[in-house]
Amino acid sequence: SSFASKNDHLFPKVKVLMLGDAGVGKTSISRRLTEEEFHPSYVHTVGIDFFEKAIQIHDQIVRLQLWDTAGQERFHSLIRPYYRGASGVVLVYDVTDRNSFNNIQEWMETLRENLNLGQITDTLIMGNKTDLVGRRVSSAEGRTLAQRQNCAFAEVSAKDGNNLETSFMGLAQRIWNRR
Ligand code: GDP
Ligand code: MG
Fold it and tell me: Which domain of life does the protein's organism represent (predicted)?
């Protein structure tokens, strides 16, 4: 990143989890945000992937860390350390995949079960792939779900980058402001 230096590790970090069904675009979003490019290939790795970007909030440089599930989401078997210390969560669905939207509720429950007592997270429900035709979930439905769940809401495209930076900056700012 443009702020990269040997002192990077000294900056405070904000840990954000990427959750949602396989194929919705979690890895693409994470890469797009931190590497500013879109990789059209579909790669399954095991374990946890980790993306980091230095951002500026007010006058503070913060390391925004995105923890990506790296294929484990298929089994809903993300290990506890994945959740530890997380202060933000992005629940991703694909606006062209109704199932992935219906499963957001389940992901919310999985999240609640795995958070430690007293652990507070800001949650952002994110509809991805707005660049595609053949939408199956309207913006209004997404927004309504987010309001019911007391979450923020955004629609983005990892492909064209639409609304991505703004959404993550908003989330990071909300997390930072409630410290
Ligand atoms: P993950 O399993 O949630 O990590 O999803 P991936 O990031 O691996 O993406 C799954 C597939 O959807 C890949 O083929 C991506 O290229 C594609 N994809 C991801 N985001 C977008 C997007 O915003 N628009 C389009 N058109 N395709 C996307
Ligand atoms: Mg992935």
Answer: Eukaryota
Rounded to the nearest angstrom, the distance between the alpha carbon of 68 and the centre of ligand 2 is 7
- Which residues neighbour 162 within 8 Å (Cβ) at sequence distance 6 or greater? 130, 131, 156
Summarised one tens digit per residue, pLDDT across range 104-128 is 999 999 899 888 888 889 999 999 9
Task: Tell me the residue ranges of DSSP E strands in the chain.
Answer: 13-19, 49-57, 60-68, 88-94, 122-128, 152-155
CB 94 within 8 A of CB 128: yes
pLDDT of residue 37: 63
Closest residue CA from atom 24 of ligand 1? 129
Rg (CA), the chain: 15
Residue (of 89, 95, 45) closest to 67 by Cα position: 89
CA quadruple 57, 82, 85, 11: dihedral sign:
negative
